[in-house]
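Repro case for the chain-ordering regression, as requested:
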Amino acid sequence: MSGITKVSRRSFLQTTGLAGSALILGVRSGRAAFLPVPGAASPAGVFEPNVFVGIGEDGVVRLTVHRQEMGQGARTACCMLLAEELEVDLDDVKVIQALADPKYGSQSTGGSTTVRLNWLPLRRAGAAAREMLVEAAALRWGVPAADCSAESGAVLYGSERLTYGELAAAAAELPVPDDPALKDMAEFKLIGTPQRLLDTEDMVRGEAVYGYDVDLPDLLIASVERSPVPKGSVLGYDADAARAVHGVVDVIALEPISTGLTNAGVAVLATNTWAAMQGRTALDIEWEPGPLATETSDSHRGRLEEIASRPGKAARIEGDYDAAAGAADRVIEATYHAPYAVHAMMEPPAATARVDGDRCEVWSATQAPQWTAGEVAGALGIPGENVAVHVTLLGGAFGRKSKPDYAVEAALLARKAGRPVKVLFTREDEIRHSFYHPESYQLLRATLDTEGNPTGWLHRSVFPAIGWTFPDGGAAPSDQELGLGLTTMPYRFPNIRIETGTVPSSVRIGWMRSVCNMFHATAVQSFMDELAHETGRDPVEFHMEMLGAPRILDVDGGDSQFPYDTGRLKAVGEAVAEMAGWGREMPDRRGLGFAMHYSFYSYAAMVADVSVNTEGELTVHQVDIAIDCGPVVNPDAIEAQMQGAVAMGMSLARYGEITLREGAVVQGNFDDYPVARMSEMPKINLRIIQTGTVPTGIGEPGVPPTMPALMNAIFAATGKRIRDLPLEGQDLG
Amino acid sequence: MITLLVNGKRRTVDADPSMPLLWALRDLLGLRGTKYGCGVGLCGSCTIHMDGVPVRSCLTTVESASGKAITTIEGLSEDGDHPVQQAWIEANAPQCGYCHPGQIMSAVALLERTPKPTAEEIDVAMAGNLCRCGSYLRIREAIYRAAGSEGGGS
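-- result from build under test --
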């Protein structure tokens, strides 16, 4: 079965070495240039003032993108920042996807950081190159640089014009400016304009290369049967039966690695995916499930409820909540539960590795190329600099592809097999061998005085922490996790007590789009709605009153460059209420729900318009959104991200639930882990409010308010208060 | 050896007759535009046309595909200039893009049957194509554009 026919223009070529090669994922124009060719198509530009810009004498401008594209527009946004200051047209550049390398700074693409953290560095990189090109032209013409200008890849002086290609060699001789002048925002030509994602054309032609699509000469495909229960071990398996499958080449057992990223498994390696899958089925593995096999969803929930029933560790204290409770005329209490959830990105994890002696080359759909390089080096016992990590496009990721477990598996298998190996997760693998969004159980209490005024806020949040997954991570939630919507509660209660608990988990915990913000926003925004109704107030008015005068909330331990300004939250809340016509009469069994949330330094507010018929069927008619994420880089991407956030938030609210039986995940595919379909999509209206001078997150902030907006709207439509997710299986009628 | 007619060309593959067409296309013929998403016909990422009808290539064996005219995303047009592909680009429909070859193949089949689909007809025809990024509103808009209709999702 070696007759692999290749379409040459889309094939990988053999690289000759590890150093200096880059995977060109795509360019905006000219399909012939779309060649995922490591090494070959990346000649050193004569002018490379920094790691992001390269210009050759042929005039080709190459921009290197060090962040990963998973649909959120990172590649496009990075190029916009560079191109704006460099003064080149986006259609005229070649885009190179960087290999893992610390010279770029952090390449970890998560936490909605790409634009926020690269807003200045990438603009400076573009501006430095532009200044040098202008200086080179000015020297050639013998005129002051200040009298020259740059535009569309050329420097101009009166009627004189020199292209960047013509200037590249001369510019390379000049010193790189430390502090190049950046454009005023009013001068932007590209930033702030809607731009199509760079890879769109490749995607619609089926030519975009994802982790699943990597091909190399002599490649084997690996399908890995992993322990259904974490920390389980292999007792025995039928390697001969697997090898008997036509196309199977090898069967290799995998031991867990010491950093806790991988579990035990048995891999079947074959010349094609189907053979690998068939061989895997034939393995008939006998498992020792280990100590976690007694775990069930009930045991997990029981622990959470038990811990939430007693005082926890203080995470934020203001005033004296206990005194407020003692003096209260009324105490209102509610508990909220949300289950484990999984990412279900359309492309399951996939990575390819080739090992040659003490060197390894990896091609991975990863959010974290540098971590991938480190883990692969550790697992193979080779120096980190001997690992080259190429990044493909990611067919969705949502945090799952921050974990490099699948690249580690590919590297270990490639070394043992002596051939390049591509590890492909099946859908069942993706759902059953993830790093899960944690189950959560939260208790909230509010105290009211005799006038019905709120006097105290108690919030106890219990969920297994991400650190639990790692040997040295610790089991208590980190300050960072607590800052994701728990300690950042923005309302002016005179007495505040916010607590957390430490709870173990039998599954691995990871990041999932907006992370703890999801369940914290769900609880806080639902409870605020409950309080409004309990005190006979209009929910939006109640929110605004409890926010009070704008202030800087200094509790989240976040980046002090980006203070939490409650005035900006109020502004998006007021904007969305106005957009939605908040307060208008609604038909029977139809209602509006309001929610707002600050996350990743952005401010998002939503109003959901839903109806529930007498059979209990929910229809989401419309979602209005107002977001303030600072100055806009690509408004088209913001709109796409907000639409996507609603789809994901709605999917999770309606269906998203991972359950455990005998320590193993029960769900396995889209039949028992459904996601929203097109017919479920509401009309979405978006208003973008631009405040401040630095852009903040867009990939995640739309998700957290979606769930409570829907839940509050269901209450408005039906009088039923949802405190347990998902909605599926609950009687809404 | 099994002979397949793929994108107008006769191709021979050395495959187990029960191999899903998806893997024969991807691994044996190098046509990796057709995507795996679930393997059991639940997500639509692997949608191709067989004798003009949209089918899930993960559920179609090579044996049953033999002798049928198979069209994949690569064979939809010479240069990505099929009206539906063009509409997709104009609508900026993809986010991660992974499910979009399958989405496009379903949309093309819909528009060949129903040149001016209603919103409901679009929802029904596209119900089997999942997109976890949530690009649905723009997919719907792209279909309207390709149909030359006004309206759209968002």
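Ordering looks correct now. The two ends of chain B are 49 Å apart (CA to CA).
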